[in-house]
Task: inverse folding
């Protein structure tokens, strides 16, 4: 069964159309990376899934039920924008209040479990307002985990975090699916991090889903390339351009050859032309480049 | 081996939902300085009004100390606004408190957290109404204590009263808190994006200026102002020291009007919340 199934979803804010017939399928148990530019409709979609805003048209099913059904809503955990925490209360009190709100009997045990999952058990006595951004995000996720949700919707939880914060968040997301059996929808602009955890991807543009794929499909779709550095990059590039169809310089100072060729061929060709290669490797483009390419290409 | 998880969807009952929400709201009320500040304000204002009457040159607004709690007769059109300076003032303080309380729900993201999970919009309206009505009822008590303290300090006021009528007037006004809390919750829910306006409107309704104005028009054109008893402020002024009917009946009128208006505001608030997006 799919955790989320959205068909032909539309939403307009006055004259502005935020969603224009979006279709989306999130399989149960997936970590679904939801990607798109600012204003593409990610947050609007997530807010509709969470019942915060009403769609103009289309249907949203959660586990085969209408997304507004209270029984299916009770199985959701959400972190949209700010966590629903009271700044003057401690992390622990906020957790207990959330448990009380949900009518959970063994509130303390649930709170401890959730805080452990997000690596925040040592900060339970901190006032929420004194927590760092990364800690606040993790408290928000811990709050969302109270009540063992089947579906967790996280809106950009890793944006603004430092490297360590991102690593912890990554581990947390994996633990959540393992320990709670939860389906996670996570939107983010930090594609390099998302790539490390997501099992499925959805790419949205202009309020429409332009591509949905599994991590394996993404891996298969990502082109391999040869990256090299030489003693004279300008001359090297001119030689490579003569023989290969697509040669580009990357941000790290490498020349990339995207044609489906072997390293040996490139080495031999350049050697014959008197160019000395200092470094050469084969690699695959990542999610970020795939995404940028996709945005350039248009709808797949 | 892969773990398997059974999917059971169970809708939480209304009682479970409202119990959870009330427990959080009451916890918050008792753990916020705001509540205690307003309790103090509710005590200080009547104490100051009555206490200054004992001072040399102080204007004698009342001759009977209990007029700080309720007027002698049901008042609609009055010569002095001071005659309205009784326990109804609690509804002004209450309005401001409700605005701040609900404002913090939206600012903190608590409302989003609620509405994305198990809560229905009506639960929110009901829970806030009950919690805020309780807070205003508590303010009525501190108002009473402050009034007594001020009257004792003034020393020149009569304490003569029919105790049963006084008790009924106090209970009547405390009961009216339900309707007022629902009204303020409604105002703050529909004006959630405009915190300043919602506070100002709460203050405006709480002062009773609207009903006094309408009553003035009614008097001028010959419509009996008793019709205003059907409205929130109208029935609350009916809770007075000599209402002209059996005092317990005035309590019942307050209860009926308060509950009826509370239900109207809860239904309206729920409808608007359901149809609008939550930000």
Result:
């Amino acid at each position: 069964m799919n955790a989320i199934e959205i068909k032909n979803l539309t939403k307009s804010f006055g004259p502005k159309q935020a969603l224009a017939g979006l279709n989306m399928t999130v399989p149960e148990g997936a970590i679904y990376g939801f990607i798109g530019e600012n204003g593409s409709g990610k947050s609007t979609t997530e807010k509709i899934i969470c019942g915060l805003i009403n769609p103009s048209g289309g249907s949203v099913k959660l586990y085969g039920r209408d997304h507004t059904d209270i029984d299916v809503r009770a199985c959701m955990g959400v972190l949209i924008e700010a966590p629903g925490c009271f700044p003057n209360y401690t992390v622990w009190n906020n957790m207990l209040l959330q448990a009380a709100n949900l009518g959970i009997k063994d509130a303390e045990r649930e709170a401890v479990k959730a805080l452990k999952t997000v690596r925040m058990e040592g900060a339970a006595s901190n006032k929420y307002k004194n927590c760092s951004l990364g800690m606040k995000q993790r408290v928000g996720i811990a709050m969302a985990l109270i009540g063992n949700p089947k579906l967790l919707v996280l809106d950009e939880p890793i944006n603004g975090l430092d490297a360590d914060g991102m690593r912890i968040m990554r581990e947390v997301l994996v633990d959540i699916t393992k320990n709670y059996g939860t389906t996670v929808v996570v939107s983010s602009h930090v594609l390099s991090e998302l790539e490390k955890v997501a099992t499925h991807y959805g790419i949205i543009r202009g309020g429409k889903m332009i591509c949905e794929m599994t991590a394996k499909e993404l891996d298969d779709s990502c082109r391999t390339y040869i990256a090299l550095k030489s003693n004279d990059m300008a001359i090297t590039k001119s030689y490579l351009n003569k023989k290969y169809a697509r040669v580009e310089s990357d941000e790290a100072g490498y020349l990339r050859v995207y044609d489906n060729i072997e390293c040996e061929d490139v080495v031999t060709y350049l050697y014959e032309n008197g160019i000395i290669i200092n470094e050469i490797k084969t690699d695959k483009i990542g999610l970020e480049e795939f995404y940028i390419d996709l945005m350039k290409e248009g709808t797949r | 081996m892969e773990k398997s998880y059974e999917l059971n969807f169970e809708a939480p009952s209304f009682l479970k939902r409202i119990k959870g929400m009330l427990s959080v709201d009451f916890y918050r009320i008792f753990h916020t300085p705001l509540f205690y500040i307003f309790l103090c304000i509710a005590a200080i204002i009547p104490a100051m009004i009555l206490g200054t009457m004992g001072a040399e040159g102080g204007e004698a607004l009342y001759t009977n100390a209990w007029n700080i709690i309720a007027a002698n007769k049901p008042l609609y059109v009055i010569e002095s606004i001071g005659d309205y300076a009784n326990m109804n003032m609690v509804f002004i303080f209450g309005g401001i408190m409700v605005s701040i309380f609900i404002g913090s729900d939206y600012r903190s993201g608590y409302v989003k957290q609620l509405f994305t999970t198990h809560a229905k919009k009506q639960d929110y309206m009901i829970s806030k109404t009950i919690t805020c009505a309780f807070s205003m009822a508590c303010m009525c008590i501190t108002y009473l204590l402050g009034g007594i303290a001020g009257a004792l300090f003034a020393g020149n006021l009569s304490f003569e009263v029919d105790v049963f009528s006084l008790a009924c007037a106090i209970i009547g006004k405390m009961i009216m808190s339900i309707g007022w809390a629902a009204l303020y919750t409604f105002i703050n829910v529909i004006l959630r994006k405009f915190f300043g306006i919602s506070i100002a409107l709460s203050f405006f309704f709480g002062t009773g200026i609207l009903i006094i104005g309408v009553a003035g028009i009614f008097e001028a054109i010959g419509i009996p102002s008793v019709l205003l008893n059907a409205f929130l402020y109208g029935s609350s002024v009916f809770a007075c020291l000599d209402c002209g009917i059996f005092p317990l009946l005035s309590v019942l009128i307050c209860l009926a009007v308060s509950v009826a208006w509370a239900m109207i505001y809860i239904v309206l608030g729920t409808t608007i919340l359901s149809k609008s997006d939550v930000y």
Summary: The interface with chain A takes residues 3, 5, 7, 9-12, 16-17, 19-21, 23-24, 27-28, 31-32, 104, 108-120, 275-279 of chain B (CB under 8 Å). Chain B has a mean pLDDT of 84. The two ends of chain B are 43 Å apart (CA to CA). Chain B has one domain: 14-48+65-274.
